[in-house]
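Appendix B, example 12.
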Amino acid sequence: MVSDKIGNGKSYSIPSQMPMNLDIGWLSKVLEGSPIPTFVIDRSHKVIYYNKALENLTGLKKEEVIGTSNQWKTFYRKPRPVLADLIVDGADFRTIKRYYKDKIRASSTVEGAYEAIDYFRSLKGEGRWLFFTAAPIKDESGNLVAAMETLQDITEQKRAEEALKISQLMYKALVDFFPYPVVLFNLDGTVKYLNPAFEEVFGWKLAELVGKKIPYVPPGYEKETQEKIRLLLDKKIIQRHETKRLTKDGRLLDVVMRGAILGESTDGTSGQLVTLRDITQEKRLQRNNEILLKISLALPEYPDLEDLLDFVGEQVKDIIGCEGALIILVDFDKQELYTLGAAYEDRATEKRVKEIRFKMNELVAGEVISTGEPKIVLDTSQNPELHRKRDEKLGYHTRNLLVVPMKSVDRTVGALCAINKKIGVFDETDLNILTMIANTVVLSIENARFADELKKAFIEVSRMNRIKDKVINHLSHELKTPVSVLMGSLKILEERLKQFPSNIWERTLQRAMRNTDRIVDLVDRIEDIIRGNREFTRMTLHEMLNVFADEIENLISQRCADDYGLDEIRKRIDEIYLQKEILPTKTDPSMVLTKMVPQLIEKIRERDLKLFVFVEQTGLIQLPEYVFQKIVMSLCRNAVENTPDGGEVAVYLKRKDGVCRFVVKDTGVGILPEYRDRIFEGFVTTRDTLSYSTKRPFDFNAGGKGMDLLRLKVFAERFGFKVSTESRRCEYLPRENDLCAGSIRECAHIKNPEECLKKSGTIFEVEFNLTP
């Protein structure tokens, strides 16, 4: 007897040889009690045995098949040879394979026997999976006398296998669909399977790692990893473990790992399932927010620029994870780069870099500042000449660096640099972080820079102020003694001169005493300033003119033996500067302006301008007529001289809100904003001094030093009227030294002259109170 195995691993016995006179009864006794469905056919393909187990499997009674060749009915709907028939015919393996394809194979234990697994639809109506074996039965001489075929119903086993296969496919699909990296490890730590998400995040393909260990544990994390593996084997599960892992291209990721043991066999665990979630961006965002908040809160604590930049450098070094950080600023006067803030692990290097200056083209930072674009240098060996010279000066080797510009509103003031990343390489995330830090601190850097400059300026002004106080104090003391002596001498002189006629000496002596009193008053004011009382009062413009008159009178008297002609000279001075007391007079401004129109037209006759005059009856004003004439002529001349050819000047006289309003409006170039508040101070010019030239009155840009407007202010103080102005500068002439073409038609910035009339201009308005 030989033993063979069927699909479920159970054994059965078949006779390898039979006697010449085949005893069916004996065969029935041997096989009838077997649970294995079995039938036997003789050399003529007749069924000579068909046991009970086969009846139960097929539903065919043995009476229906014994002695017939209907064994095919057991398996098929149409006649065809079964495996036992092929054995009886002595068919070779190639012939047998034509019927059973790849399902058939030769038995490994019984010579000449074959076995197969196939699905038979006709069995029990619903079809069954069978594992069947056919073997020859030979006599003592080795001649084939019969063939026996056994069958095993393995339908449930196949269904279980199919269910397992489906389950595995579903599991694989689920793992593949899972958005986070998943790895199935063998017991020895080698890879059994990994999903597409792992390939996407870490860069390795499944084919690269199957049967191998993943080289993604960063240096310094080996001990931690081994401890977690032991914990996993002991506890069977790890809920959450935060650590770091490397990618194929060397990037360092922050990950959250979870692990579990998958099933157990008799010899131990069968595998480890590990999931990894990349939280690098989450942690960086959280860390960035914390750092930016920390920097923002700390900025006011660093009024000193160098301390501020050192603090920023330390924060950059920590958050980026690099060996050094530099804040490089531009010296715009010298066009050089210098480091004011630095953070290095080596303090000697940190100190050294602050002492060295570079030209703009000697550093990558110079390129970044010039272009305004950030730059990542992953390998300095790609441009060894540039980096070698820099490193020689610094005494430090730079492997890689990241540089971003620090931009204020109108310029790039410097660059923020991260040097030599410790783990991995600089990437877009690092660039974004560094850019955010640069944008956060650049305003504070500018403020600290300005504060530093103001501090230096304040120190210098304070020094000069102390020198000034010493000089003024010295001069006041030097003046006080001789002035006191002079005053005493004048009193003595007055007593002695009383014996002479007063008309010879009295006016001269009074003038001398009056001006001596002024000197005494000046000395007193100086002393008040030095003492900090600040009780000096503002001298009005007509008081200044009084001083001028006295000085001129004194000069004339020095040239004359007597006071002859001094009254006439004083009278002329008063006429020019209005120092005389003028009696109040009433003037009709409407009549005066109407009479002046022909004169104005004649003044601008050679200019290509449009003059509009609008006159209303306003009533009388309390003002000398000739003063009103000077006001009209001064404002009209100012308007004409500031309006290019092709422009317009409009003059209005009207009564509004109970007052008389005189308005001159032009479409000229306008006044620069910085001069509008000072236009009446005198000697204030609205154009660059070098641009002025002496021309005829009423020509465009005829010049002038602001005396007309100063005189207008003097008149306003003396006669109590109000003067105001509004102006809009031409947008194409934003600077003091910008020059207008002189004619709207020649302007290169406009297409239509009407555009110019709306873009700029000046309005002067004088408001007079009406007399009752």
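The radius of gyration is 57 Å. Confidence is low (pLDDT under 50) at residues 1-21, 531-540, 576-580.
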